[in-house]
Specification:
alpha/beta; about 240 residues; about 35% helix; transport; globular; nucleotide-binding; 2 domains; binds adenosine-5'-triphosphate; Rossmann fold
């Protein structure tokens, strides 16, 4: 993973440590689901989670985001458990689920309204965050005027505007063309580097995980089968583990 040469200018946000202790989730009475999972993510670490279809990536993210509650074990962000939707974390999904009736700035400011941030500060933070994702001046535009890549930038800006301590990303660039994906990946690294936010990035694409993550965790059958620093990874072994 290469460090971006210039870090984007913004208020640094210190990421929180994330801990999963013996976390298990099963759908219904079946065996499908994840766990037991034990993971420690350092404050400000960029962790990529890879795995084939059905390996439990989305389930893990839903647990981290507080949409699902573990049936066993505990997830902690900093000192406190995640027990439901949590203002300290935000999630960027594969498809940018933006509000079509709001402007770009209105979408970015959405989370700030919920935090009851005053209007002038909301506008300033929305503009600052749009600049961070390369969309300076796009605030008054409507969402339908934007390309797929620009919409995903807005989605990222909306997640960043609330200054999360943990940023969750679920295959955020997979619907984009290769060039846009590379550009946005580089920009995401710049933002992460500047903000020091803890990142969990889920992808089925091993090359993307290796390009982005400081550390890569591989899931299979709902369990961690490999956990290593990206630079130390035996890529052939990992491919074999995921495909075998
Ligand atoms: N709502 C559900 N009800 C029952 N089983 C489910 C449900 N959602 C997921 N599963 C099962 O749980 C396991 C993990 O699924 P999950 O969606 O987390 O995998 P994934 O790695 O995200 O897959 P993909 O890459 O295809 O999105 C799979 O066996 C899946 O069939």
């Amino acid at each position: 993973m290469t460090r971006p040469a210039t870090a984007a200018a913004t208020t640094p946000v210190q990421g929180l440590p994330l801990a999963l202790d013996d976390v298990t989730y099963r759908y219904g009475r079946g065996q499908a689901g994840v766990g037991p999972l034990n993971l420690q993510v350092q404050p400000g670490e960029f962790l990529c989670v890879v795995g084939p279809s059905g390996s439990g990536k989305s389930t893990l993210l839903s647990l981290l985001a507080g949409f699902l509650r573990p049936q066993r074990g505990e997830i902690r962000l900093g000192e406190t458990p995640v027990r439901g939707p949590d203002p300290r974390l935000t999630l960027v999904q594969q498809e940018a689920a933006l509000f079509p009736w709001r402007t770009v700035a209105g979408n970015v400011a959405f989370g700030l309204e919920r935090q009851r941030i005053p209007r002038a500060e909301r506008a300033a933070r929305a503009n600052e965050t749009l600049r961070l994702v390369g969309l300076e001046g796009y605030g008054p535009r409507r969402v339908h005027e934007l390309s797929g890549g620009q919409r995903q930038r807005v989605s990222l800006a909306r997640a960043l505007a609330v200054q999360p301590r943990l940023l969750l990303l679920d295959e955020p660039f997979s619907a984009l063309d290769d060039r846009t994906r590379t550009v946005l990946s580089d920009e995401l690294l710049g933002i992460w580097w500047a903000q020091k936010v803890t990142v969990v990035f889920v992808t089925h694409n091993l090359d993307e995980a290796l390009a982005l993550g400081q550390r890569v965790v591989a899931l299979r059958g709902g369990e961690v089968v490999l956990d290593d620093r990206a630079r130390d990874l035996d890529v052939a072994k990992l491919r074999g583990t995921l495909e075998g």
